[in-house]
Amino acid sequence: MSDVEGANSPVDEQLPSGELALRNIRRTFGETVALDDVSLTVRPGTVHTILGENGSGKSTLVKILSGVLPPNRGSVEMRGETLHPVTPRRARSLGIATVFQEVLVAPNRTVTENVFLGQDAWFSWKLRGRARRELALSSLSELSKVKFDPAAEVGKLNLVQQQQIAIARALALEPKVLVLDESTAAMDIGERDLLFEAVARRVQAGMAVIFISHRMDEVLSLSDEVTVLRSGSRVATLGREEFSESRLLSLLSGKEAA
Ligand SMILES: Nc1ncnc2c1ncn2[C@@H]1O[C@H](COP(=O)(O)OP(=O)(O)OP(=O)(O)O)[C@@H](O)[C@H]1O
Ligand SMILES: [Mg+2]
């Protein structure tokens, strides 16, 4: 076997493998400054929560790192590589899978078709017929005790089931970074706990998560780090030893002295 040149070249020291970094992101909508100079990094094998009141810029940040919306300024880096520009395809090919706040399903398509919706062609070609159905169902069985009919039309399912399909779609990509934008909002505790278990298994294996939720108990139990946004600005990023409910609440409302 011949030597492989560069196989032992040093890894990027600034950004460990799998890490996503947002640098100095700014995004305006007309007069509205949705994000102003927001930076954060997400480490592999951790959950990084973005916490903020309604309209503080969380979903805008998610759309930017997923390539759905361009920033006015700033950059998105994945494993040390700057994505210029960030496109949905590029973000996905680098391992970013996003479950958007507005559930994205094709209502007239089947459960199986929806799990594979928008996947790159090679991924769809590789998996045919039965294998597709089985992967779709096994992803969903992790998230729901209710058995899905792979041939059911998704538009006839309830909101949580549609959300679970969108999550299964993201998990099927075996992402390096999973983004959950208020995915638990409509779930009951049992559904939520199944999701958290599915996520925790993958976090243990090194997946990073960007998590957004208004439920403080979820934030406190799941997060390794919390970045607090207020009116589009990052007011703090705190590690597990630093955050508590009262601290986060005062940062959210702006009542904490710097
Ligand atoms: N497409 C758009 N056009 C105009 N304004 C927008 C658009 N998207 C977001 N905004 C504005 O940008 C700001 C941030 O919105 P964003 O949806 O990112 O907030 P959020 O933190 O996700 O809120 P929520 O908790 O309600 O989901 C808000 O003032 C919002 O009205
Ligand atoms: Mg939002």
3D architecture notes:
With 258 residues, the chain is of the alpha/beta class. It has a domain at 20-106 and 177-251: Rossmann fold (3-Layer(aba) Sandwich), CATH 3.40.50.300. Helix content is 33%, strand content 24%. The chain has helices spanning 58-65, 88-93, 111-115, 121-126, 129-143, 159-172, 189-204, 216-222, 245-253; strands spanning 20-29, 32-42, 47-52, 73-78, 81-82, 96-99, 177-181, 208-212, 225-230, 233-239. The strands form 2 sheets. A 6-stranded mixed sheet has the order 6-7-8-3-9-10, sandwiched between helices. The structure holds adenosine-5'-triphosphate and magnesium ion. The site of magnesium ion has 4 residues, from helix 1.
Task: Report a brief summary of the structure.
The protein is 33% helix and 24% strand.
Unreliable sequence segments: 1-18
Bound small-molecule species: adenosine-5'-triphosphate, magnesium ion
The shape is globular
Q: Helical residue percent?
A: 25-40%
What is the count of β-strands? 10
Strand/helix succession: EEEHEEHEHHHHEHEHEEH
Strand content: 15-25%
Class of the domain at 20-106 and 177-251, according to the CATH hierarchy? Alpha Beta
For the residues shown, what is the average pLDDT? 89
- The CATH topology label of the domain at 20-106 and 177-251 is Rossmann fold
Largest sheet: 6 strands, mixed
Give me the CATH architecture of the domain at 20-106 and 177-251, please.
Answer: 3-Layer(aba) Sandwich
- The chain-level structural class is alpha/beta
Radius of gyration: 19 Å
Termini separation comes to 59 Å
Biggest sheet, spatial arrangement of strands: 6-7-8-3-9-10
